[in-house]
Amino acid sequence: MKLSKRGEYALRSMINLGIAAKVNRSLVRVAELANAEDLPVKFLEQVMQQLREAGFVESERGKHGGYRLAKPAGRIPIGQIVRLIDGPLAPIGCVSQTAYKPCNCPDPDHCGLRMLMVDVRNAIAAVLDRYTLADVVEVTTRKLVSNGLPLPFSTPAETISVRQKSRRYGTGSAASNPVDGVIHQLLGDYAI
């Protein structure tokens, strides 16, 4: 599975809409979303339309219009967004649960490649389906706050409020390894 640019833009925008909801921002214009992540506006408009049609976001038209999450971030598994935009998570068609395609292997029940790719699919799905948009928003805002950076789409007072809540609940250290992922940010050191 490789995340496409469309999938990356969708996830970045959804995370930003989750942050906006966390700081009580009711709507975010597509130009603001594009500017926040340095994304092309026209392409992002298409992505947002797809997310709207799937029920992940709502939009309001007009001068003061924009986008917002259609449901709470805690009810949006990351895997659902990825599947919507990029399709099945399986690296080969014969192990896909949503888009199965038979392979040309003479004995699929005993195919080592197929068994390996089932494990790959299961591992990817387990991570993407375990975490919700709320989890990623929490990790993102916690890291921004711990590094003393303002939250996107917030006023300084809102950033201070989130910073105080983060201190109250503990945020971990500001320094991290560039390969530390969401699991590390949520759980600290762990072993697989």
Topology (elements, then pairings):
Elements: H1 5-22, H2 30-37, H3 41-53, E1 57-60, E2 66-69, H4 78-86, H5 112-130, H6 133-146, H7 156-169, H8 182-187
Helix pairs in contact: 1-2, 1-3, 1-4, 1-6, 2-3, 4-5, 6-7
Question: How would you concisely characterize the structure shown here?
Answer:
It is built from 8 helices and 2 strands, in the order αααββααααα. The chain is mostly helical and 192 residues long.
Question: Can you walk me through this structure?
Answer:
It is a single chain. By secondary structure, the chain is mainly alpha-helical. It has 3 domains: 5-74, Winged helix-like DNA-binding domain superfamily/Winged helix DNA-binding domain (Arc Repressor Mutant, subunit A, Orthogonal Bundle), CATH 1.10.10; 88-130, no CATH class; 134-187, no CATH class. Helices cover 53% and strands 4% of the residues. It has 8 helices and 2 strands, in the order H-H-H-E-E-H-H-H-H-H. The protein has helices at 5-22, 30-37, 41-53, 78-86, 112-130, 133-146, 156-169, 182-187, and strands spanning 57-60, 66-69. A two-stranded antiparallel ribbon has the order 1-2. Helix 1 crosses helix 2 and helix 6 packs across helix 7. The longest helix is centred in the middle third of the chain and has 19 residues, at 112-130.
What are the key terms here?
single chain; mainly alpha; 8 helices; 4% strand; 3 domains; Arc Repressor Mutant, subunit A; 2 strands; 192 residues; 53% helix
| CATH architecture descriptor of the largest domain | Orthogonal Bundle
Number of helices: 8
Provide the CATH top-level class of the largest domain: Mainly Alpha
Write out the strand line-up for the largest beta sheet, numbering strands in chain order: 1-2
Total domain count: 3
Query: Could you state the CATH homologous superfamily of the largest domain?
Result: Winged helix-like DNA-binding domain superfamily/Winged helix DNA-binding domain
Q: Structural class given helices, strands, pairing? A: mainly alpha
CATH fold category name of the largest domain: Arc Repressor Mutant, subunit A
Q: Major sheet: size, sense and barrel closure? A: 2 strands, antiparallel
| Order of secondary-structure elements | HHHEEHHHHH
The overall pLDDT average reads 85
Fraction in helix? 40-55%
Report how far the terminal alpha carbons are from each other. 21 Å
Number of E strands:
2
**Rg, Å, rounded:** 19 Å
* Content of β-strand: under 5%
Shape: globular
